[in-house]
Amino acid sequence: MTDLNIPLAGVIGNPIAQSRSPQLFRHWLKTYDRAGFYIPIHVTEANLADVIRTLPKMGFVGCNVTAPHKVDVLEIADLATDRATLIGAANTLIFRKDGKIHADNTDGYGFIANLKQGAPGWAPSIGPAAVLGAGGAARAVIASLIDVGVQEIFLSNRTRPKAEALKSSFGTKITVVDWVQAGNMLEDAATVINTTSLGMTGKPEFRVPLDGLRRGTVVTDLVYSPLRTRLLIEAEAAGCVVVDGLGMLLHQAVPGFERWFGVRPEVDVDTRAAVLA
Ligand code: ATR
């Protein structure tokens, strides 16, 4: 809290100018008529620990964390939630009144909330999920799928050992599929999730063959720039239910906003419009 008793929070990353979180938080502060500040903070790797230890002393109640600091902040925090420990990364730091820094990871929560909102019939029981990619985002997605009760996950990654490593940390529900066979696993999937950077503006195009996609399969892409990726366009044409990745970004911010500013915010069309403006 500041001396004026107004909550102060922000987002740390390197770079930070691209982050949409300040726009999002300011939209919610205005919508819910809350007094508060939420600012972007550029933090280099070398300064990370010092900055995190200093923010509470400056009156910050917490901060979000974006690339490349999500793994390192877990080491700096005094405590971590089970889900942050399992994922091995944190995107939310809570500066507690007792001086302790508490790390949480709400990416998986945001992923599931977005899926449920974008595909209202979606439930863990609808069948196997196919996950493309095995980086940090995939870790959060897989942890959340297992947490809500998905029984079977097919996982494919260009660098196969990274997929095998995820299988060893999450257990037997995962079947690793070779990257060249990734298109085949889509046939058996009720949910398909792209966690790779393929299709993102400035990155190589998404080229996994999509002929295996079935009508009614729920397809989501964590890439949200562009909002309508080739994967989503082709999946929609194949009769799939498509969910874009912007909602995950919005939903993962809900727990932090609620904790710091005292209202659980809605993610709706106005929220999307505010962030895309
Ligand atoms: P994030 O934390 O956002 O998941 P990351 O850890 O860098 O970012 O992971 C990026 C993912 O995109 C990885 O699964 C990566 O595959 P590799 O593990 O083989 O690197 C995947 N990816 C990036 N570029 C790719 C490409 N050209 N072809 C296939 N997969 C790619």
TrEMBL record:
A biological process (GO) of this protein is: amino acid biosynthetic process
Catalyzed reaction equations: shikimate + NADP(+) = 3-dehydroshikimate + NADPH + H(+)
> According to the UniProt record, what class of enzyme is this?
oxidoreductase
Keywords, alphabetical: Amino-acid biosynthesis, Aromatic amino acid biosynthesis, NADP, Oxidoreductase
Q: Provide the E.C. number(s) assigned to this enzyme.
A: 1.1.1.25
Give the Shikimate dehydrogenase substrate binding N-terminal domain ranges.
11-93
Listed pathway(s): Metabolic intermediate biosynthesis; chorismate biosynthesis; chorismate from D-erythrose 4-phosphate and phosphoenolpyruvate: step 4/7
Highest rank taxon of the organism: Bacteria
Which residues does shikimate bind? S19, R20, S21, T66, N91, D107, Y224, Q252
Q: Which GO terms describe its cellular component?
A: cytosol
**Which GO terms fall under molecular function for this chain's record?**
NADP binding; shikimate 3-dehydrogenase (NADP+) activity
Q: Which InterPro entries match?
A: Aminoacid_DH-like_N_sf (IPR046346), NAD(P)-bd_dom_sf (IPR036291), SDH_C (IPR041121), Shikimate_DH (IPR011342), Shikimate_DH-bd_N (IPR013708), Shikimate_DH_fam (IPR022893), Shikm_DH/Glu-tRNA_Rdtase (IPR006151)
Q: Where is the active site?
A: K70 (proton acceptor)
Supply the NCBIfam families for this chain: aroE, PRK00258.1-4
Name this polypeptide is given: Shikimate dehydrogenase (NADP(+))
The record's gene field reads aroE
